[in-house]
Amino acid sequence: MDVVSIIFTIFANNKILTFMEFNAKQIAAYLGGEVEGNDNATVQTFAKIEEGFEGALSFLANPKYAHHLYETRSSIVLVNKDFTPERPVSATLIRVDNAYEAIAKLLSLYQSTIARRTGIHPTAVIAPTAKVGNDVYLGPHVYIGEDAIIGDGAQVYAGTVVEERAKVGADTILYPNVVIYHDCEVGNRVILHSGCVIGADGFGFAPAADGYEKIPQIGNVVIEDDVEIGANSCVDRSTMGSTYIRKGVKLDNLVQIAHNCDIGSHTVMSAQVGTAGSTKIGQWCMFGGQVGIVGHAQIGDKVLCGAQAGIAGSIPKGNVTIQGSPAIDAKNFMRSSAVFKHLPEMHTELRRLRKELDALKQE
Fold it and tell me: At residue 202, what are phi and psi to the nearest 5 degrees?
């Protein structure tokens, strides 16, 4: 039996059946890796390397965890091909091009064995003009509005609302209590986690004599294919036109994308990132947690931004790493931080030197 068949058997019905085993040679063949140690070492489940036990498969991708390799009780550990142990290792190693990608491949295989939900719950409300595709799951208290479209194989969990004329693509998953406002479009294979709000009004107000006058937000949100958005994140509809989340974008929990933004393909944002209105971000950018981006900024491709940075203007050239608030070149920021922590002592020294200088002038 090949490793794929074995894994499917092991994780059948979403349960780990510990009497089923597969060995290092089979795993290596599936991953295109090389065994270093016992070809016949067997495993039945997964474990973190620091919590390993006999019969478990672990992985080592981050060098910071390398010290666990020499102590782990896991039977098999996936490592990168260029990893060189500093001392003997008791576990069998499987060397692969990228250990993180390899474990992800195995976990994805496991995930694919979990049975998909099917059927339409009797409490779901579907408007007469809505179109629901084949093999769709609609959970309890789901609402599908007039002229809305739900693609084939979509999974819409309990309490989710898809408003009028909204479109949801094939094989997309909307977890509980997602809200997709009217006229918004969600692509294929998108995952929206619980509490996502797609298409709420952008923050548009005009100062008036007696307060603020609301500017109608008549645009929409377009989310392209293979996007994943974390829990309680919000993507606001545009004032006019569309707010875009391009193909392959990954947004963490509690991310705010303001109206008329355009987030480039394969860009990732960690928790609590906030983008002000009309910001355009390039492809393959990475933003750490709590990064803030000023409105109307133009951010180029492959900009890497450290946590809590404040981007106060455009970075059109791209291909840079920045940090700090206002954000500057990361290396410059590190040098500046090294100086910053000594400022009190430097200030004291400066005051002493000034006194000495004044005394010399008086003499």
Answer: -65, 160
